Amino acid sequence: MTAMAATENGKKLRYAVIGAGMAGILAGIRLKERGETDFVIFEKGDGLGGTWRDNHYPGLTCDVPAHAYTYSFAPNPEWSAFYATGPEIRGYFNGVAEQYGVVPHIRYNSEVVGCVYDDATHQWEVTIVDGSKHVVDVVIAASGVLHHPKYPDIAGLDSFEGTCLHSARWDDSVETAGKRVGVIGCGSTGIQIVTALSGHSERVVHFQRSPQWIMPVPYFEYSDEDRQAFRDDVQKIDDIRYGDDYWSGIRRFTKAVTDVDGPEMKEIEAVVLRNLEDSIRDPELREKLRPNYRAACKRLIYSWSYYDAVQHPSVFVETGGIERVEPNGVRMKDGSFHELDILVLATGFHADRFIRPATVTGRAGASLDDAWSRRPTAYLAVSIPGFPNFFMLNGPTGPVGNFSLIDIAERQWGYVDQLIDQLRSGTHRAVEPSQAAMDDYEARRIDAAKRTIFGSGCTSWYLDAEGVPASWPWSYEAFSEAMDAPKLEDYLLHA
Ligand code: NA7
Q1: At 107, is the secondary structure helix, strand, or coil?
Q2: Would you say the CB of residue 321 lies under 6 angstroms from ligand 1?
Q3: Res 277 pLDDT > 60
Q4: Which of 40, 269, 290, 400 could pair with 471 as two cysteines, CB 3.0-4.6 Å apart?
Q5: Which positions ≥6 away from 267 have C-beta within 8 Å?
Q6: What's the 191 CA to ligand 1 centre distance in angstroms?
Q7: Are strands 329-332 and 322-326 parallel, antiparallel or unpaired?
Q8: What confidence tens digit (pLDDT) does each residue in 215-272 have?
Q9: pTM for this one?
């Protein structure tokens, strides 16, 4: 879409984008491409990049291949390896935001604390933490999913006299070399941290309440020649990003997730089981690392090195229950004790917050907290009845799984942009999904979600308070098709 197209669209609108992470930067770029200049990206932090700004723990890596984890319009020949590290990805987002002229639109240290819709003017009043108020026509909530760290409820945690830190609040000045480090948590984060510290710290105790299935993946660094080839011929990047290797993997994975007894899932189960059996030499450790739930029920861990790292003599896997934290270590329920200098809480996030704790008040005084009292949800993951001209990127019930959220956000933007066209045309001043469309979507989604692998009997951040996977429960193709064009019969258009 070009700036030329925007000038054909008539009415200029004012926008508030919430969050300068991957999705907020995308919204800014796309708005600019439409010739829209009257927008502010409100960012609660002091830098851009969202999750890639907040997370900088040792070993941070994206488990989507680097060339697939880029904006479609900004391929990056410079990635150092097949999987990129956190700092590289942060650098990428900073570079793209700069290059596309989005940075001047970002207002840092500006947490949005409230959004109130005015039924008469069809405008939103957005209140920032400093008390300032901004009136806009459209709110784009790109506030992220995993940005409220979850601290474990373990007795004595506050009494620890060493360094205790959550993975998403890492302190780069903390020296881990030669230290005794405990890592609580066995999601992607805990696995990556233990892998990075293995053989580097004096001792690493990995506290595993639930071990994980590990999907082995190839890893290799790109050479200077590779990078030159990517620079010379973008087709080589496209071959990875759009190639069959990556996409057939995604199709097989989503098929497996939605057809839990089908051949694709059986293949995944066989691969991760073989990985465990073949990789872990010590039978006792092998049993400790054997999950008691199905593969991909929790977010599947993609790792090329955890099983090596965990067998290093400096690493001990603790699967007993934690009794309490004491000033100099962790006491187990069986009375044993791990003396530690550093305690890392890789215990995840409150995944149901989205834009909250900001209060959002929609049409006729509707409160988002009320609308989401049972579970956060949104029609096709992007919009909510009663909240006109309020759109989400990577909002609730959006796709989850091991593929690029950038691709998801781009497709969602394509859909949202078409809804906003209804306002740009000048014939309508507000657009929101009908309650009937929402109810129908939600009933079908919940029914299908319960039958996905995520609902097969394990705990994970994918599940809502009632244990229903908060996911897109159909194929990737179905998502892509749904995002092609809004069905306007599912929307209320206010003149
Ligand atoms: P996750 O995937 O939510 O993992 C959190 C881990 O912390 C998980 O292993 C939990 O065990 C464990 N945990 C949480 N509380 C406790 C207590 N009290 N005691 C012991 N263990 C505990 O978070 P991550 O940060 O690793 O990853 C989140 C996503 O970020 C990831 O999926 C990627 O999309 C990027 P449990 O499984 O509940 O037994």
Answers
A1: strand
A2: no
A3: yes
A4: 400
A5: 252, 256
A6: 10
A7: antiparallel
A8: 999 999 999 999 999 999 999 999 999 999 999 998 999 999 999 999 999 999 999 9
A9: 0.96
